[in-house]
Each structure stands twice: as structure tokens, then as C-alpha cells.
Design brief:
The protein has about 230 residues and is α+β, with helices and mostly antiparallel strands. It is built from eight helices and ten strands. The protein has a four-stranded antiparallel sheet, sandwiched between helices. The longest helix is centred in the middle third of the chain and has 26 residues.
Length: about 230
């Protein structure tokens, strides 16, 4: 199998109805290599897939005032489930293609929460950090991936593979405006102003506790989209 170039990736992106696709070499980051190799020891690259969440759906989001209160923002949950399905099809189609050619791949599906270390509320492999390395966007103060065309309104899935794939370049521009709007509106007060040199600071436990109380949130996503979009 010849090395997969960007033209082929774009062709497959359109065929599988994916909005963005990028590739990060595991040699690009020591942390990425440490986190990816336990899944696939022969891994050479991580392919990241992104699909847009509709702006009009995100506009419905708002913090619930009372547990059990009807919330229009619940439409986002249903919409996201559809997007996850499209992304999961894409990563498995790619994995199947590589498998037929004799390469090894591990599809890491889109989901509300990838395999997480519950002690620290951290994913074993952060899709958004891989996406930043793959040039899909930059991470803002809300800890979300912010892209050029869709702002923070993307969902992600990843594919680990040892197939030869051309890496996509990183983005030099920072799409976070540092407006601190996400910090101001966070109902759980989980998003904080980061220390110097840090892209973001978030209390994951406060964020999780708020969501586990049955409250629809994602207001940091909504306000970021209003500012960057």
C-alpha cells in the first residue's frame, strides 16, 4: 500500500460525509506516543475525524434552573447521537480499508465520554489534543477544540493505525480570542482563568457534578460559538 496522501484523505472525507480530517504522527508528541501505544504498539499515526454540530441546535442550549425542568437544549443530545453514528461509521470504514491491506488499526469511536480515568476525570487519549496536533484547530479557555470554520461546534473520533499516512500540518493561528466569556457564564464555575503559559484551567469534578445532577449545560460551547462564529 502506497503512502496515503492528503488528496486521498479529502476524497474519503467527502465520501464518508465527514467535515474535517487530520493526521498526527505519534512522533509529534511524547505524551501522544505514551497514550497511543498501549492501544496499538505498532501505531504510527492517529487520524482524527470531525463533524459539525449545527449552530441552530447549539443556540438552544441554556443551563436548567431546576432539576427536571423542560430544557430545549436537550435537542443537542439527540443531534449529537446522530453525529456520533456518522463518525463511528467513518473510523470503522477506514479501519476496514487498512485491515484489508494488512495494516493494524484501532477505531476509537465518538461518544460523550471516551474511556476515562474516573479518579482524575481524564480520558486515556484526549481527542481534542490529538486534533490540535493534527491541525484541525486550537484549544480554547473552555477546554474545547475551536476550529476555523465551525468554531467549537465539532464532535471527534480517532483512528490509530500503523498504515503509512501523510501528516497534516499544525495550525499556527490561535482561534481562542481570550474573551473569558466561557468563564463568566459557566454555571458550575468550573472554568477558571488559566495560569501563565497554560491554555485553560477547568475543574473537571465541578463540571461532572453539575452534569450528573441531571442538568443540561454546554453553555460554554454556546457562548464560544457566539464569539468565534
Amino acid at each position: 500500500m502506497k503512502k496515503i496522501n492528503r488528496e486521498f484523505l479529502q476524497e474519503m472525507k467527502d465520501k464518508l460525509d465527514i467535515d474535517m480530517i487530520g493526521v498526527a504522527s505519534i512522533e509529534k508528541s511524547k505524551e501522544l506516543k505514551e497514550r497511543a501505544t498501549p492501544f496499538l504498539p505498532t501505531v504510527k499515526s492517529v487520524i482524527v475525524f470531525a463533524k459539525e454540530t449545527y449552530k441552530e441546535v447549539v443556540s438552544l442550549v441554556g443551563p436548567s434552573r431546576e432539576t427536571g425542568e423542560p430544557e430545549r437544549g436537550e435537542v443537542l443530545t439527540v443531534h449529537a447521537n446522530y453525529i456520533y453514528g456518522r463518525l463511528n461509521r467513518a473510523v470503522h470504514e477506514f479501519a476496514h480499508l487498512f485491515h484489508q491491506k494488512g495494516y493494524h488499526s484501532i477505531p476509537l469511536c465518538a461518544s460523550p465520554g471516551f474511556i476515562t480515568d474516573q479518579r482524575f476525570v481524564t480520558a486515556l487519549l484526549s481527542y481534542k489534543h490529538v486534533a490540535e496536533l493534527a491541525g484541525l484547530g486550537t484549544i480554547g479557555r473552555n477546554s474545547l477544540l475551536i476550529t476555523r470554520d465551525f468554531g467549537p461546534r465539532v464532535r471527534l473520533a480517532c483512528l490509530l493505525t500503523d498504515a503509512p499516512v501523510d501528516e497534516t500540518p499544525s495550525i499556527k493561528k490561535d482561534y481562542c480570542t481570550r474573551c473569558n466569556a466561557c468563564i463568566k457564564v459557566c454555571p458550575a464555575q468550573a472554568i477558571q482563568k488559566p495560569k501563565s503559559g497554560q491554555p485553560y484551567s477547568i475543574n473537571r469534578f465541578a463540571c461532572r457534578a453539575y452534569r450528573q445532577a441531571g442538568l443540561v449545560c454546554s453553555v460554554c460551547l454556546k457562548v464560544c460559538d457566539e464569539v468565534t462564529g
